[in-house]
Structures are given as C-alpha cells and as structure tokens.
Design a protein that fits this description.
Largest sheet: 8 strands, mixed
Strand order of the largest sheet: 3-2-4-1-5-6-7-8
Helix content: 55-70%
Number of strands: 8
Number of domains: 3
CATH architecture of the largest domain: 3-Layer(aba) Sandwich
Structural class: alpha/beta
Distance between the termini: 66 Å
Number of helices: 24
C-alpha cells in the first residue's frame, strides 16, 4: 500500500531534518512534495490547496522560530494530510424503527459484491447485528450466485428473486427482513462498466423506495483519479454518506485515498484489502493513513489487528514489546499463528515505524512464515529467549530439526537482531506521536541503509529467491556514519577530537 509515495516522503523527511530550515529550503521541499503527490495521482486542485495550507503554516513562527524546526515542518505536513482525509466518523446510522437499510453502489469490477459480504461479516461479528444480504445486481452474470455463496460462508441469509426488477427486489427484501428478524439490510445494487443514465435511474429508484440510512459508494483504489471522478458523479445523483475504498493492498500510489474526501466532501468510511472474507473491512483512520504514507508506520492499527485475534492482555503485552524492543523469539512463536490471521506479512511490516518504504526490499513472502515457524520451533525455550547463546553446534541442530540449510537459520537470526536493534533505536528516540517518530527516523537514519541492505538477505534465511535490486539513493547499502558529520566511523567531531587526544597522551606515556 502506497509504496511509491512512502519512499518519496521518506527521502524528503530525511533531507529536511538534516537541513537548517529557511524560507528557501521550505519552498524547495514543497516542490518535492508537489512532485510526489502528482506521481501518486492526487488531484491537481487538491495538491494546490494542500500545499498552500502547508506553506502558510510552515512560514510562520512555529517552524522558522520554533524548537527543532525540521520536525515542526514535517509535523505540519502530517497534520494537514490527516485533515485532508478526515475527520471521519466510522459509526453507522441505525434506524430507530424497522430494519436499517444500507445501499451499496458502484461500478462493475470495484469489488462491490465481496464488500457487501465483508460488511455483513463486520456487522455480525463486531456489532452483533443480524444482517440480510440482498442480491439486486441482476446486471452482472453470476452476481446473485456469488452473493449466495458469500452469505453461506459467513452464515448470513441472502434474499433474491428471479424475474423481478432490482428496485422491487430491494423493496420486497424489507418485508422479508422483518419476518426473519434481521435488523440490517445490505442492498447489493447493479453496476455497469461505466456510469450511464440507466444505472443511475435504477439506483435512484432503489434509494427512493427503500430510504436507506447509509449510501456507500464502493471504489476501486487502484483506478486512482477514475475512482474520484466516479465518486463525484455518484454523489451528485445519490447524496452519498460515505465511500469504501477496496483493493488498497494493490494501490502503490494513494491518489484516491488522498483526493476523494476533498473532491466529494464525503468521508472514506472503510477500507478493504484482499478478496477473502476474513480480510474484513477496516474503519478508515486519517491519522493512521497519513502516518503510513509519511513512513511513520501505524502501531495503533497493528495493535488493533492483534487485539482481534488475541485477548486484551496479550495485545497490551505485544504493544509494549513492540515499542520497547524487548520482544524475543519466544514471543514471536507465540504470536505467529495470530500474525497469519492478521493479514499479509508485508502489510504488517509496513505498520512498523520506519519500515514502510523498505518492505519491498526485504523479499518477505507469506509462505515463508511456516518455514520461519519451523526454525523457531526447533529451538529450546531458552534459545528462543536468548538467541545470543546459539553457537555453531546449536544452529546445526536447529537446521536439521527444521529441515533447512544452516544459512537459513543464520540469516533469520541475523535479521531478528537487526530488527531488535532498529526498534530499540526507535524506542530510545521517543517514538510517540508524529514528532517522536520524526526524531526516531532522524536518529536512526545512519542505520536505515544497513538495515535495508541486510533485509535483502531475508530471502537467504527463508528460501531461495532472486533478490531485488535497490535504486541509488533509495536505501541501498551504504557506509554507516554519523548523520551530522558524515563520518564513516559513526563518531561526532567532539568524540573524534577526544579520541585523538587520548591517543596522543598514550603515545607520550609509552615514550617515557
């Protein structure tokens, strides 16, 4: 999700935090942000308004005369980006009497029918509602059968009628819902390959007959500005109450997420990833999305996902270990089954602060989790708790037990230690809130290139795959050094002078 724009913003943040802030380099940075947003397919009018607000705030006393002006500037960008996509109230409006009606509209191919199933599952499991799915999409072949199969998988009834027009099917479903004791009706309306008068007339008639409490437009995030244009046209005809963005895991740009609220005035209520029903809809959080786009990760979302598959006490422990960098291989093994339920491994890593722009360079694949699990299970509890005691003979034993090459065990342990080191650096830098995350990124900058280069070797630890190359200036292996002085030794100028003075004093003693 948003790999390209996250990479660009990570570079921009790294540059601005190392500079002395002036009006000139603020404007230079704004030009870089403009290019990044254009490449992300954000609407031009949205970019223009966004940059104007950032510039007005950035050229004030808060940034130019404030403490840590570089961090203050990035904080302004973060705040304005969160405002651009929000605020969002993800609660649903329920009818006081009779069943609540939710009308789902959208074009063919946007994932509308699957989203209906996901929404029904979310309402059933998290809000304890009794939903009814209504198959009113008679335009697309097999849409009715698809919805029936989805309803069967999640245990939700599906209403359908043959030889009846969609508006009448939707109207009849309300009486059926009352008889069946269903309190929420989800209408899967018909779509088209493009917006036309017949589709709009039909969906407007459905809305007039059923008076829905919520009208959601389902948009394919991968279509970029086309999704925003269709949202604007639907809103002009239907008075939408919200937008659901689907296939967000396949969108590397992010233009739809950043533009749709500003263009339509309607909030993004939920986001969807994947085709499977267990990949349920997630409430849209503008602040969390802004953090991920800027490369700050999203620990809150990570913990929220964990809370759904583990109890509250375990989720709290996981949060503490992630933020304090005290987690060990025992903890990882305990949660590895939960990780599998939480979604794609890549998506989870992108929520770790500082890793969003570098996950693709790691070569991590979901199928590798089972192999990693086998390696860890071949260790003793003590070895999992203290991996530093794993000598040559112990590693050979683990490799035989997991039926993998010794190099794969070595690689996994090396990556685990690098991750712990990075998270420890992040924790000590005070990684709380956007300013803390910026400070963490700046203090850990000299390690980022080494970490990224080492992550390339994750493939060697988990299976033979071809490594991806890194682009120059995008996190490839570099010489570690002090971020302020550029010293290859990693020492500041004062530290270098002190060391040289001590060496001269030692030489004098030796001569005596």
């Amino acid at each position: 999700m948003f790999e390209a724009i996250t990479r660009r913003f990570t570079d921009i943040i790294g540059n601005i935090t190392r500079k002395k802030i002036t009006e000139g380099n603020i404007k230079e940075t704004l030009r870089e942000i403009r290019v990044a947003l254009l490449e992300a397919d954000v609407a031009f009018e949205v970019i223009k308004d966004f940059l104007a607000k950032v510039e007005a705030e950035a050229l004030g006393d808060r940034v130019l005369k404030g403490v840590n002006p570089g961090q203050q500037f990035i904080s302004v960008v973060y705040e304005e980006m969160a405002k651009l996509m929000g605020p969002v109230d993800t609660s649903l409006h329920y009818a006081q009497q009779g069943p609540t009606v939710i009308l789902m509209a959208g074009l063919q191919g946007s994932g509308k029918t699957t989203t209906c199933g996901k929404l029904a599952l979310l309402l059933k499991t998290e809000q304890k509602r009794r939903p009814l799915l209504v198959a009113a999409d008679v335009q697309r072949p097999a849409a009715v059968e698809q919805l029936k199969k989805l309803g069967e998988q999640i245990g939700v009834p599906v209403f359908s009628e043959s030889g009846v027009k969609p508006p009448q099917i939707c109207l009849h479903s309300l009486d059926f819902a009352k008889r069946q004791g269903c309190d929420t009706v989800i209408l899967d309306s018909a779509g088209r390959l493009h917006i036309d008068e017949a589709m709009m007339a039909e969906v407007k008639e459905v809305a007039a007959l059923t008076t829905p409490q919520e009208i959601f437009l389902v948009c394919d995030a991968m279509t970029g500005q086309d999704a925003v244009k269709s949202a604007k046209q639907f809103n002009e005809q239907l008075s939408l109450t919200g937008v659901i963005l689907t296939k967000l895991d396949g969108d590397a740009r992010g233009g739809a997420a950043l533009s749709v609220k500003a263009i339509t005035g309607k909030p993004i209520k939920f986001v969807g990833v994947g085709e499977k029903l267990e990949n349920t809809l997630k409430p849209f959080r503008p602040d969390g999305m802004a953090q991920r786009i800027l490369g700050f990760g999203d620990v809150l979302q990570l913990v929220d996902d964990a809370r759904k598959v583990v109890n509250a006490e375990e989720a709290t422990q996981l949060q503490e270990k992630l933020l304090s960098a005290t987690f060990n291989l025992n903890d990882f093994l305990k949660h590895i089954s939960a990780v599998k339920k939480m979604g794609s491994m890549k998506d989870l890593l992108k929520m770790v602060p500082g890793l969003g722009a570098h996950v693709d360079d790691m070569g991590v694949e979901d199928k590798e989790l089972s192999q990693i699990e086998a390696i860890i299970q071949s260790m003793t509890p003590k070895e999992r708790e203290r991996p530093e005691i794993l000598n040559t003979s112990r590693r050979d034993r683990i490799a035989r037990g997991a039926q993998v090459a010794r190099t794969e065990v070595d690689g996994l342990l090396k990556q685990f230690q690098m991750m712990k080191k990075f998270m420890d650096e992040f924790s000590r830098a005070g990684g709380k809130g956007p300013l803390g995350k910026i400070k963490a990124l700046a203090s850990a900058k000299k390690q980022m290139s080494d970490i990224t280069g080492m992550m390339h070797k994750m493939v060697e630890a988990t299976g033979p795959q071809q490594q991806k190359g890194t682009q120059k200036g995008r996190g490839g292996p570099q010489q570690p050094g002090n971020p302020k002085t550029g010293s290859a030794s990693g020492l500041s100028k004062d530290e270098i002078r002190k060391r040289r003075k001590a060496e001269r004093q030692n030489k004098k003693k030796n001569r005596r």
